[in-house]
Amino acid sequence: MESLTKAEEKVMQVLWKLDKAFVKDIIENLDESPKPPYTTISSIVRILEGKGFVAYKAYGKTHEYYPVIKREEYSKRTMRQMIADYFDGSAANVMSFLVQEEKLKASDIEALKKLIDKQ
Description:
The protein contains 6 helices and 2 strands. It is 61% helix and 10% strand.
């Protein structure tokens, strides 16, 4: 699975949220201001299609796009890659970072302990 650019990820986030959408729907649901041009989003969607993330149903010249890759699948792959790239492949290094840098609440730490104990 190929990596996504920030712009591609933003479009995918909208598609995952909406389940299916026309380009105009994607633009309406982007948090950006000002909204990007139609042609820009249309190009991004075609790139996503080429990467295998998106497919479409044609209605004449109009296309309704939908995600082929599930958000959870992409999240898992992205997280694994981040752990490999930035934490020497170690889940313990990730946990240490979260505890030290993110100032986790005691309740968050307790919830993490319970998850670990289940494994």
